C-alpha cells in the first residue's frame, strides 16, 4: 500500500495545543491531559504545541524540554554546560553539577516556586524551523527520509500552507512494521 | 586605494570566511588599530648567524618593525612589530617523535606566514603537528597585540590581545584576550577571554577561567575599542626605552655580560642589572635593577623590575615580574604578571611553577612556598589558598578536583611530570646547563648575531609594502 502523510498524521483537532503566553504549569497540565485523553494506538502524544494568534504553530514542548527548563541555572551551571566542548567527561561534569546543586535550593522548592510555575512557554519552547514542515500529500517514504536525515521525532503537516496535523515517528514506524508483518504472514519468503 | 589597503581588506575577508561558522567578524577589532601611516615608518630586520639556517622570502607584505631569524617565508601578510623567531625549528635529518612514531624530517622546517595580520606577535618554537613536519604555517590568521603563537600552526583564526596558543594546531578558532591554550589540536572553538586550558587527551585536562570583571582591569579589548587596562599602561610607560635601542645602529651593552651569556642588542637594561653566566635575555625584554642568576632567562616581551632571580629561573614569553624574589628553578609561565610592592615584596619559593597567564598582584607581603603549583588571580593570602597546591598534592590527584575556578580531570602526576619535563627542555634549549664545551643553547648561540635592515617602498601605490626579497646563504 502506498501511504501518504495524510493517512498517518494525527489531526490538529486531536492534538494537544496551548496558546502563546501560557505558563509552564499550564504546559505541564496540557502534556498530562494529552497523555490521558488522546492515547492513540500504543503510543501517546509526547508533545504539546504552542499556537500563535493566527493559528500558526510557534513552537513545541516535549517532556524533555520541560525538564530542561526546570534545571536550576546560574552563571556556574552555564559554565558547566560549556565545559563539554573542552573535553571534560560527562561523569566529571555531572559530579561537579551535583556538588553545586546541593549547595543551592532543593529541587522540590525550586519546582514549586511561583517564578518557576509562571515561566512563559515562549521562554523555553523549541521554536519551529522551516524543515520541520511536510505537505500532507508527501509519500511516507519521503517523509521518513526527512525524519531520519534531520533526526526528527515528528513533522508538522500542512495543507495549502495551513497547519493540519502532526506526523509522528511512532506512527511511521508502526506502519512500516505492520507492512512487514503482513507481507510475511501472506506467505512472502524471508 | 594603495596596495597595502587592498592587502588589508583581502586578509580581513579571508579570516572572516574561516570564522563565519562562529559568526565572528574581525573587522571591528582590527580596523584603525594600526593606522597605515604607522606601517610605513619602521624598518624590518633579520638576523644572520652560523647557528641557524638562513633563508628568508618576503613577498607582497608589510613587515614594519618586525624581526626574523631562521627560515621564514612571508607572503601577502602584514606583520607589525612582530618577532618571527625561527631558532628552534626542526633541522633536516632530525627525528620527530610523536606517540609511538619516529618520523624523519626531510628538510629544514620553515615558518610560512600567508594572508595574515600579526600585531606585536611572537612566533616561536616549531610545529608540533605531526602532519606538517617541515612547515610551521600561519595562514588566514589575525593575531592582536602581544599574542604568542608558540609551536602552533594556525589556519583561519583570530587571537585576542595577550592570547597564547602553545603546541596546538588551531583551525577556525577565536582565542579570547589573555587566554592560553595548549590542547594538541582544536577547531571551530570560540574561547572566552581569560581561559587557561591545558589538555592532553586520555591523560589530563586543566581548565581555569579568570573572572571577567577582575580581568578587565588588567586587559580589556572588544570590538571598536583599543586594547586598554593595566597591562597596556604598564607597557606604554616603558615604551620609550625601546625606541632608543631600535634607533641605534650599534649598541654596546650597558652592563657586564659573561661570555657564555647573551643579552640581545634589542633588549633594554636600566639601572643596576646583573647578568650571570648562561643567562639569556631575548629581544624586547626589559630588565631594570634586577639580578638574573646563573642559567636564568628573560624571553621576548618580558619585564623584570626590581627583582632577584636566584638561578635557572624561566621567565616565559611576555611574563612580567616586579618587586619579587624568586628562588632557584622557578617557572613563570607565558604572560604571567607577578607584582609585589617595594614595601610588600612577593617571594616565590624554589621549584614553584607559576602557570601561564597567572596574575599575582599583591599589596601585602606574600610568600609562595617552595614546590607549589600556582594559577589564576591572586591578590592576597586568601586568594592564594584557593589558587595553589603543593606539587606533591597535585601529583596525588588521580581522577579529578575542582578548586575555586579550577577544574582538573585526569592524572595530576602526569600533568606535573609533563610540566617538569618541559621546564628542563626550556632550560636546556636556552643554554642554562652549558658547561664550557657541551650543552650549548640560545644563550651561547645567540651571542653574535648580525642584523640587517630592510625598508618598504617610500611612496607611490606600493608605499609601505616591502619589495620581494629573497635572502639565502
Please characterize this protein's 3D structure.
The complex is a heterodimer of chains A (190) and B (473). Chain A is an alpha/beta fold and 190 residues long. Helices cover 45% and strands 18% of the residues of chain A. Chain A contains nine helices and eight strands. In chain A, the strands form two sheets. Chain A has a four-stranded mixed beta sheet. In chain A, β6 (133-135), α8 (140-150) and β7 (154-159) form a beta-alpha-beta unit. In chain A, α4 runs antiparallel to α5. With 473 residues, chain B is α/β, with parallel strands linked by helices. Chain B folds into two domains: 3-228 and 449-471, Hexapeptide repeat proteins (UDP N-Acetylglucosamine Acyltransferase, domain 1, 3 Solenoid), CATH 2.160.10; 238-247 and 257-445, UDP N-Acetylglucosamine Acyltransferase, domain 1 (3 Solenoid). Chain B has a twelve-stranded mixed beta sheet, with helices on one face. In chain B, β46 (400-403) and β47 (406-410) form a beta hairpin. Chain B is globular. The mean pLDDT of chain B is 95. The A-B interface holds A 79, 83, 85-89, 92, 95-96, 99 and B 183, 189, 197, 199, 201, 205, 207, 209, 400, 402, 407, 409.
**What characteristic shape of chain A results from the CA principal axes?**
globular
- Computed CA radius of gyration of chain A, to the nearest angstrom: 20 Å
| H/I helix tally of chain A | 9
- What is the structural class of chain B? alpha/beta
Task: Present the secondary structure layout.
The complex is a heterodimer of chains A (190) and B (473).
Chain A: H1 5-8, E1 10-11, E2 17-19, H2 24-37, E3 47-51, E4 57-62, H3 63-70, H4 75-83, H5 90-102, H6 107-112, H7 114-117, E5 126-127, E6 133-135, H8 140-150, E7 154-159, E8 162-168, H9 169-185
Parallel strand pairs in A: 2-3, 6-7
Antiparallel strand pairs in A: 1-8, 3-4, 4-5, 7-8
Helix pairs in contact in A: 4-5
Chain B: H1 3-18, H2 27-30, H3 36-41, E1 44-48, E2 55-59, E3 67-69, E4 71-75, E5 78-80, E6 83-85, E7 95-98, E8 101-104, E9 110-114, E10 117-119, E11 122-124, E12 135-139, E13 142-143, E14 148-150, E15 154-155, E16 158-159, E17 164-166, E18 168-171, E19 174-175, E20 180-182, E21 184-187, E22 190-191, E23 195-200, E24 204-209, H4 212-218, H5 230-236, H6 239-247, E25 262-263, E26 268-270, E27 274-275, E28 280-281, E29 286-288, E30 291-292, E31 297-298, E32 303-305, E33 308-309, E34 314-315, E35 320-322, E36 324-326, E37 331-332, E38 337-339, E39 346-348, E40 353-354, E41 359-361, E42 366-368, E43 372-374, E44 377-378, H7 381-386, E45 388-390, H8 391-395, E46 400-403, E47 406-410, H9 412-429, H10 442-445, E48 450-454, E49 469-471
Parallel strand pairs in B: 1-3, 2-4, 3-6, 4-9, 5-10, 6-11, 9-12, 10-13, 11-14, 12-15, 13-16, 14-17, 15-18, 16-19, 17-20, 18-21, 19-22, 20-23, 25-28, 26-29, 27-30, 28-31, 29-32, 30-33, 31-34, 32-35, 33-36, 34-37, 35-38, 36-39, 37-40, 38-41, 39-42, 40-43, 41-44
Antiparallel strand pairs in B: 1-48, 2-49, 7-8, 23-24, 24-47, 43-45, 46-47
Amino acid at each position: 500500500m502506498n501511504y501518504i502523510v495524510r493517512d498517518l498524521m494525527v489531526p490538529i483537532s486531536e492534538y494537544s495545543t496551548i496558546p502563546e503566553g501560557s505558563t509552564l504549569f499550564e504546559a505541564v497540565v496540557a502534556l498530562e491531559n494529552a497523555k490521558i485523553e488522546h492515547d492513540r494506538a500504543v503510543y501517546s502524544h509526547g508533545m504539546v504545541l504552542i499556537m500563535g494568534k493566527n493559528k500558526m504553530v510557534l513552537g513545541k514542548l516535549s517532556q524533555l524540554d520541560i525538564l530542561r527548563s526546570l534545571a536550576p541555572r546560574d552563571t556556574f551551571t552555564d559554565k558547566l554546560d560549556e565545559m563539554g566542548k573542552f573535553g571534560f567527561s560527562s561523569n566529571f561534569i555531572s559530579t561537579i553539577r551535583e556538588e553545586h546543586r546541593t549547595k543551592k535550593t532543593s529541587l522540590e522548592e525550586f519546582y514549586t516556586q511561583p517564578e518557576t510555575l509562571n515561566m512563559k512557554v515562549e521562554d523555553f519552547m523549541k521554536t519551529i524551523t522551516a524543515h520541520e514542515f511536510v505537505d500532507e500529500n508527501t509519500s511516507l517514504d519521503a517523509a521518513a527520509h526527512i525524519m531520519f536525515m534531520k533526526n526528527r521525532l515528528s513533522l508538522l503537516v500542512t495543507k495549502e500552507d495551513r497547519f493540519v496535523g502532526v506526523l509522528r515517528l511512532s506512527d511511521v514506524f508502526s506502519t512500516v512494521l505492520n507492512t512487514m508483518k503482513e507481507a510475511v504472514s501472506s506467505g512472502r519468503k524471508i | 586605494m594603495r596596495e597595502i589597503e587592498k592587502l588589508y581588506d583581502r586578509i580581513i575577508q579571508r579570516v572572516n570566511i574561516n570564522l563565519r561558522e562562529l559568526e565572528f567578524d574581525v573587522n571591528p577589532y582590527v580596523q584603525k588599530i594600526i593606522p597605515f601611516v604607522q606601517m610605513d615608518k619602521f624598518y624590518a630586520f633579520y638576523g644572520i648567524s652560523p647557528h641557524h639556517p638562513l633563508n628568508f622570502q618576503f613577498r607582497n607584505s608589510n613587515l614594519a618593525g618586525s624581526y626574523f631569524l631562521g627560515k621564514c617565508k612571508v607572503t601577502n601578510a602584514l606583520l607589525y612589530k612582530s618577532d618571527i623567531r625561527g631558532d628552534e625549528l626542526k633541522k633536516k635529518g632530525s627525528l620527530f617523535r610523536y606517540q609511538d612514531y619516529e618520523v624523519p624530517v626531510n628538510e629544514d622546517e620553515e615558518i610560512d606566514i600567508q594572508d595574515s595580520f600579526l600585531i606585536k606577535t611572537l612566533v616561536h618554537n616549531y610545529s608540533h603537528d605531526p602532519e606538517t613536519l617541515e612547515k610551521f604555517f600561519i595562514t588566514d590568521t589575525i593575531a592582536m597585540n602581544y599574542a604568542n603563537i608558540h609551536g602552533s600552526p594556525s589556519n583561519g583564526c583570530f587571537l585576542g590581545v595577550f592570547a597564547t596558543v602553545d603546541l596546538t594546531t588551531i583551525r577556525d578558532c577565536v582565542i579570547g584576550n589573555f587566554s592560553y591554550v595548549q590542547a594538541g589540536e582544536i577547531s571551530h572553538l570560540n574561547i572566552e577571554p581569560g581561559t587557561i586550558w591545558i589538555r592532553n587527551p586520555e591523560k589530563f585536562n586543566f581548565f581555569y577561567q579568570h573572572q571577567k570583571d577582575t580581568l578587565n582591569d588588567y586587559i580589556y579589548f572588544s570590538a571598536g575599542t583599543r586594547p586598554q587596562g593595566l597591562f597596556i599602561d604598564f607597557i606604554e610607560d616603558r615604551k620609550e626605552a625601546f625606541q632608543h635601542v631600535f634607533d641605534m645602529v650599534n649598541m654596546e651593552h650597558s652592563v657586564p655580560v659573561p661570555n657564555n651569556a647573551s643579552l640581545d642588542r634589542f633588549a633594554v637594561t636600566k639601572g643596576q642589572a646583573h647578568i650571570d653566566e648562561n643567562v639569556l635575555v631575548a629581544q624586547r625584554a626589559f630588565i631594570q635593577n634586577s639580578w638574573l642568576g646563573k642559567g636564568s632567562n628573560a624571553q621576548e616581551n618580558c619585564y623584570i623590575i626590581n627583582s632577584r632571580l636566584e638561578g635557572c629561573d624561566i621567565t616565559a614569553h611576555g611574563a612580567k615580574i616586579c618587586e619579587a624574589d624568586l628562588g632557584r628553578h622557578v617557572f613563570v609561565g607565558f604572560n604571567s604578571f607577578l607584582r609585589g610592592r617595594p614595601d610588600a615584596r612577593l617571594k616565590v619559593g624554589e621549584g614553584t611553577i607559576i602557570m601561564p597567564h597567572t596574575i599575582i598582584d599583591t599589596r601585602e607581603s606574600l610568600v609562595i612556598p617552595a614546590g607549589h603549583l600556582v594559577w589564576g588571580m591572586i591578590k592576597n593570602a586568601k586568594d592564594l589558598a584557593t589558587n595553589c597546591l603543593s606539587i606533591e598534592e597535585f601529583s596525588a590527584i588521580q581522577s579529578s578536583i575542582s578548586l575555586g575556578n579550577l577544574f582538573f580531570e585526569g592524572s595530576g602526576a602526569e600533568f606535573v611530570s609533563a610540566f617538569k619535563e618541559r621546564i628542563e627542555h626550556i632550560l636546556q634549549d636556552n643554554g642554562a646547563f652549558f658547561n664550557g664545551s657541551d650543552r650549548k643553547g640560545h644563550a651561547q648561540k645567540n651571542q653574535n648575531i648580525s642584523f640587517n635592515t630592510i625598508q618598504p617602498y617610500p611612496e607611490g601605490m606600493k608605499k609601505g609594502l616591502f619589495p620581494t626579497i629573497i635572502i639565502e646563504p
